[in-house]
């Protein structure tokens, strides 16, 4: 687990990721490059930070789950868009 978290933190910092929330009918994604991964009370956890003015926040508030997806570094320029 320790090595996986180290790799995820490095990927988040250098390659970014996409945060997606919603359901199959209506969802939204946004690029993120901040957050944390770890273990809390024997469970793997991820912490993300979303500004109140971001459209994605509405989806996060209305759903129980979200995803954080990582892509190869070659897609970083596309994620900026």
Order of helices and strands, N to C?
Answer: HEEEEHEH
Q: Which descriptor suits the 3D outline?
A: globular
Radius of gyration: 13 Å
Q: Enumerate how many helices there are, as a single number.
A: 3
Mean pLDDT comes to 83
Q: Helicity range of the residues?
A: 25-40%
**In what range is the share of β-strand residues?**
25-35%
Distance between the termini: 32 Å
Number of strands: 5
3D structure, described in words:
This protein has 81 residues and is an alpha+beta fold. The chain has one domain. Helices cover 31% and strands 33% of the residues. The protein is built from three helices and five strands, in the order H-E-E-E-E-H-E-H. It has helices at residues 2-14, 56-62, 76-80, and strands at residues 17-22, 27-32, 36-40, 43-47, 66-70. A three-stranded antiparallel sheet has the order 2-1-5. Strands 3-4 form a two-stranded antiparallel ribbon. The protein is globular. The termini are far apart. The model has no long low-confidence stretch (mean pLDDT 83).
Defining key terms:
81 residues; three-stranded antiparallel beta sheet; globular
Overview in brief:
This protein is an alpha+beta fold and 81 residues long. It has helices spanning 2-14, 56-62, 76-80, and strands at 17-22, 27-32, 36-40, 43-47, 66-70. The chain has one domain (2-80).
